[in-house]
Amino acid sequence: MAQPTRAVRARRARTRRSSASGRNPDQLPARHVFTQTERVWNTWIVACVSALWRRTHTVSQAVRSARAALHGSDNIAAPHSRISWQSNWRFLLRRSGIPLRLAAHLVTLSIVFLVIISSVFGSFSSDTAGAASPVPAITAPATVADVQIQRSIGSMQSGMSESEALPQIRTPDLVLAPAFVETHVVAEGETLGQIAAQYHTSVAALFWSNDIASESVFAAGQELRIPRLAGVPHVIAEGETLDSIAAQFGVRPQAITLFKSNNLQSGEPLLVGGEIFIPNGSAPYPADILTRLGGEAGIASLRAVAAGTVQEAETNLRVGPGRAYAKIGTLDAGKRLKLLARHEQWVKVEDGIGQTGWVRADLLGLSANAIAAVPETNDFPALPPVWVWPAHGSVTSQFGWRSAPFRSFHDGLDIANAAWTKIYAARRGEVYESGWCSGFGYCVKIDHGDGITTIYGHMIKKPPVKVGTMVEAGDLIGYMGSTYDRSGGGYSTGVHLHFTVKINGKAVNPMKFLP
Asked: What's the rounded Cα separation, in Å, for the pair 508 and 400?
């Protein structure tokens, strides 16, 4: 049978090539003879490839079994028939003509390259997995197997350590949160409007939440409650109902009961004295506050000032810096007072409604630094005259005319007691005579200013004070005796003190001045 032209041409070309190479075209190529080294390399390469294939085959079979169990199917695809990879690899190497040493180097380099690539891409995938958004939940219908797997995963996560477990983020329930979740300590110079703007709330909410209407002074250092929503607090009074409270603040009763932190139920009795919060409630400012501060703008611009807090109940408020000054009122504990000036350890204060006075610094809870920061002043009333009895004893002769021991005018008081009884200055002043005096024996004379002088006669010995000495009321100036100067017209019938008060040189009744 005649062959096609194309086949004839191909055969002729093959014949020519065989003739040129000196080989019979029908003869099979000579079999390659492997050396001992080539056999060792060939065996090692085939063993590595066979081990990799067996592991891959085992993993694939396990995956197919798991997938079948997940879907509830018993139909597992049959594995491919095992092929003798050793014989195939030997055949391929034999036909390719690549030296086994070169093939071994290529395999080694490939393995190294794969290891490098896997390490690089593995770290990259772990970094991106950490920054990626959470995996969305599976929306497919859950089977029994799905539930079991989800429970298994959940138990694995619960057994993880703290460093491996993801943090749980809980959003606070604002419905159950209290009305006041923040506080603010007022700094000197801050205004109520600035604090309201800082916390994105209203001036009225701050005003009513901190009962500023009852405070006489907006004091630096006091702690303000910051409401987290608009509204006002209210202390339940006796006889009030939920409806009356809602009407008072212009809200519906449901607005009060639905605010969960109030812990109120419609129809239940209200706890008298308990504080509740009225969401979106409003109340008018007191008329006296608006008048004193200049309206709502004045309330917003109310500025915090340095202040002290009264530490004890019934603290005396005086006209000047000292106990010698008259008392003008008493202060309750906890009252805040604006600090105006100081003199020594006394502070001039204002109660916030225009009344000023002086209080001891230690009664205001002020530290040494706080006292030093208050400006010093000498602008206060002069010390009022304070009189004390010049001696203890009995009054044996009053001021005025007397008939014993003979009729005469007595220009002072006679106070009798035992010898050496102490004699005191009756009022603050300067000693202008001390020693032996005409008519009085040993005596002391004191000038109190404003034309007022006092005389202390019949002392037992020379007085211990000297001329020019400034004495305070109650200072010791001598001792009771019975000395007198007969040449000066004086006399004494026993141990006593003769006490005289003169105004512009004229004797007056001492009882007008003694307490």
From this structure: 9
Give the type of residue at 75: N
Burial 234-251 (b: 16+ CB within 10 A, else e): bebeeeeebeebbeebeb
Alpha carbon distance 77, 150 (integer Å): 26
Residue 272's identity, in one-letter code, is V
For residue 95, CA distances in Å to 26, 83, 163 come to 18, 19, 57
- Give the DSSP per-residue string, 8-55: HHHHHHHHHHHHHHT--TTSPPPPPPP-HHHHHHHHHHHHHHHHHHHH
- Residues facing residue 452 across a β-bridge: 449, 503
Domains recognised in the chain with CATH numbers: 180-300 (3.10.350.10), 307-373 (2.30.30.40), 394-512 (2.70.70.10)
At 316 the three-state DSSP class reads: strand
How many Å apart are CA 394 and CA 352, to the nearest integer?
49
Average confidence (pLDDT) over 237-252 = 92
Q: Is 180 helix (H, G, I), strand (E, B) or coil?
A: strand
Write the pLDDT tens digit of every residue in 55-88.
566 667 766 776 666 555 555 554 444 445 455 5
User: What is the number of residues in the chain?
Assistant: 515
**What is d(CA 111, CA 62) in angstroms, rounded to the nearest whole number?**
25
One-letter amino acid of 405: P
Report the alpha-carbon angle 314-317-318, nearest 5.
140
d(CA 41, CA 409): 151
Question: Quick check: helix, strand or coil at residue 326?
Answer: coil
CB neighbours of 135 closer than 8 A, spacing ≥ 6?
A: none
| Secondary-structure breakdown of the chain: helix, strand, coil percentages, each rounded to the nearest 5 | 35, 25, 45
R_g over Cα of the chain? 56
Model confidence pLDDT, tens digit, residues 105-164: 777 877 877 778 777 666 555 554 444 444 444 444 443 333 333 434 344 444 444 444
Whose tokens are 């062959």? That residue is: 3
- Residue appearing with tokens 């000197």: 188
- Cβ(177)–Cβ(273) under 8 Å? no
Task: Please tell me the distance from the alpha carbon of residue 227 to that of residue 181, in angstroms, as a whole number.
Answer: 7
In angstroms, rounded to a whole number, what is the distance separating the alpha carbons of residues 428 and 320?
Answer: 17
Contact 220, 187 (CB under 8 A): yes
Instruction: Say if residue 405 is preceded by a cis peptide, omega within 30 of 0.
Output: yes
Which pTM was predicted?
0.45
Residue type for 7, please? Answer: A
Question: Which residues on adjacent β-strands are paired with residue 307?
Answer: 338
Distance between terminal CA atoms of the chain? 165
Compute the half-sphere exposure of residue 244: CA atoms within 13 Å on the CB side of its CA: 7
